[in-house]
């Protein structure tokens, strides 16, 4: 799928193999503004690709560049432009949702404080804000990550299976938010999913196969 949007991230000749398993060899892509779908079945490398693009999983070869900033030359500056969190992480379990949002606010200068109340209400998080994250269900923890990513306003946001564990109302809210951000030419969003989402406008598709 071609796009007239500007490129936010450029990946050149990325190579990443797990021991005994080749995932990506000389893989290249230009990620435009708007929403890019990474589609693929189990084991095709969707989550690994997001971690590579986030700069948290080191590639064996290749280059990543975000708006003129190369990962190999300025790793901290590169990563500061990106919002990524492993939805399965327990690293923040001792924080309350409010404390976690404060940590995101400190990390992202464009954090939208005014948007946060609407996000927490839209995702039915209001009653959970003062609870430590280990007390929340898997779905509620994922809602905390989603509220954070929309408020953070990072240049690149990476979402791994963003609808997993969500109730129907929350899925609808996330779809609405994605529609709102899709037209922002200063931002790119990459969604890793098993199938193409209905009702979400896409700028490009990366198909890793089944």
How would you characterize this protein structure?
- The protein has 210 residues and is of the alpha/beta class.
- The protein has a single domain (7-207), classed as P-loop containing nucleotide triphosphate hydrolases (Rossmann fold, 3-Layer(aba) Sandwich).
- The chain is 30% helix and 26% strand.
- The chain has helices spanning 46-54, 75-80, 97-107, 116-122, 138-152, 168-181; strands spanning 7-18, 21-32, 34-39, 61-66, 69-70, 82-83, 156-160, 188-193, 204-207.
- The protein has a 5-stranded parallel β-sheet with strand order 6-7-8-3-9. Strands 2-1-4-5 form a 4-stranded antiparallel β-sheet.
- Strand 1 (7-18) and strand 2 form a beta hairpin.
Primary descriptors:
single chain; 210 residues; alpha/beta; Rossmann fold; 4-stranded antiparallel β-sheet; 6 helices; globular
Helical content stands at: 25-40%
User: For this structure, what is the CATH class?
Assistant: Alpha Beta
The proportion of strand residues reads: 25-35%
Distance between the termini: 19 Å
Number of separate strands: 9
Low-confidence stretches: none
CATH superfamily: P-loop containing nucleotide triphosphate hydrolases
CATH architecture: 3-Layer(aba) Sandwich
Write down the Rg. Answer: 17 Å
Side-by-side strand order of the widest sheet: 6-7-8-3-9
Shape: globular
Which structural class do you get from the secondary structure elements? Answer: alpha/beta
Give the overall pLDDT as a whole number.
95
């Amino acid at each position: 799928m071609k796009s007239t949007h500007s490129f936010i991230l450029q990946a050149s000749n990325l190579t990443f193999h797990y021991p005994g398993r080749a995932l990506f060899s000389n893989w290249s892509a230009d990620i435009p503004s708007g929403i890019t779908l990474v589609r693929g079945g189990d084991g095709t490398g969707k989550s690994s690709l997001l971690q590579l693009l986030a700069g948290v999983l080191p590639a064996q070869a290749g280059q990543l560049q975000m708006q003129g900033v190369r990962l190999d030359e300025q790793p901290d500056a590169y990563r500061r432009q990106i919002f990524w969190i492993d939805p399965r992480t327990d690293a923040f379990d001792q924080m309350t949702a409010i404390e976690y949002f404060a940590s995101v606010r400190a990390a992202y200068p464009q954090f939208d404080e005014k948007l946060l109340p609407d996000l927490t209400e839209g995702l039915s998080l209001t009653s959970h804000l003062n609870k430590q994250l280990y007390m929340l269900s898997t779905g509620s923890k994922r809602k905390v990550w989603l509220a954070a990513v929309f408020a953070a306003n990072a240049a690149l946001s990476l979402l791994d299976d963003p609808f997993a564990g969500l109730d129907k109302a929350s899925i609808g809210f996330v779809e609405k938010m994605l529609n709102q951000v899709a037209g922002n030419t200063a931002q790119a969003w990459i969604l890793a999913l098993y199938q193409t989402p209905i009702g979400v406008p896409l700028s490009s598709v990366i198909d890793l196969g089944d």
